[in-house]
Amino acid sequence: MRKLIFVALLIVSANVLPTYAKLRMAILDIKPGVGQSTAQVDGLEDMLTTELFKSGYFTIIERSRVDQVLKANNLYGKPMTTSQYKAMADKLQVDAVLVGTINYIISDVKTASDGSSKINVGEYDVDLRLIGISGELLSSAAVHAAGKSQRETMDLAAREIVRNLDPSIKENKTVQILYDYLYVFPEDLGVFTSKPSNIIDITNRNSSYGYSDWRLPTDEEVQILKANAMLLHLDNARTYASNNSSWNTSYNVRLVRTKIVVQQRSTMRQRPYFEESVRDFGNIPILGGVAKKRFCLQNPSDRNVSIENVTKTDSHISLEWDKKEIASGEKTFLIVSYNPNGRQGVSFRSTIVVTLSDGQTIELLVTGKVE
User: Which of 49, 118, 121, 238 suits a disulfide with 108, CB 3.0-4.6 Å?
Assistant: First the structure.
């Protein structure tokens, strides 16, 4: 029996989310079509849930609750009519249910690089419908994906659901603030083959969207933007410019600013702080072993502090301190390790919460993707 999609509730900053209410939904009935087994669709549904949740536009009902309601109504594992979709939406107390079919047309069979197995090569056809509680079609997605990974295909499907849900989403011109420090310009400046210095200067002279210090992002900030591509309406198929770009090709340009961080740190120098609150692992090779990054914790205060507690939201991450006692004026390092074993194709974004002996709580973020 196929699994029904769920998503755990995560604690995220309100600044990261859209300014309008989320749509409460349940992924109810995604059927395996041509070339797909139930088990394969189960995995694709999980990926679809992740991409829909990352968009910031949906709250998705927990799978166990959906299963419970279906069993209570003798509909578990059975085909449903539109009227039954409506009834389930009402019983689950959601605004909409997602239904559809996933097909995979095999066009070739290739030998794996290790020579030990065969790999089916083909094209995905994904058809999804988002049905409201009154039975109306709220949105749909019809994705034909050739030469793309499973996750990329589900990302495309989630994007189309969002785009077709409400035309006003496309016109949302709100500056987004990621992780409480990175301000993101609401739209791309365009595609350029050389750094658009004059356009950036004009943008700042005009105090566009209320700020006059817009700039090109760093390489690490570009990765953060791409990790939040759906929320920011970025085209992940394009290459975005950073302040280190060589300009030997065409780049999309999206500006950022971080002035607020400088202001905060100038008033918080007497409290312990991390030099960086976000680290991106980038692309981690599946056979490259454990990847590691370090966060530096400074203690400029006149008191000694210690690490009381550390929590994380990803079981594949392990944490190690250089030292847990930090004297006044000293520093320590938090070593964050990610084990990619068995996680090929997975993009991750994990929050680490550090509690200090002075009562201060600091959130850190790590992101990356396993190749």
Answer: 121
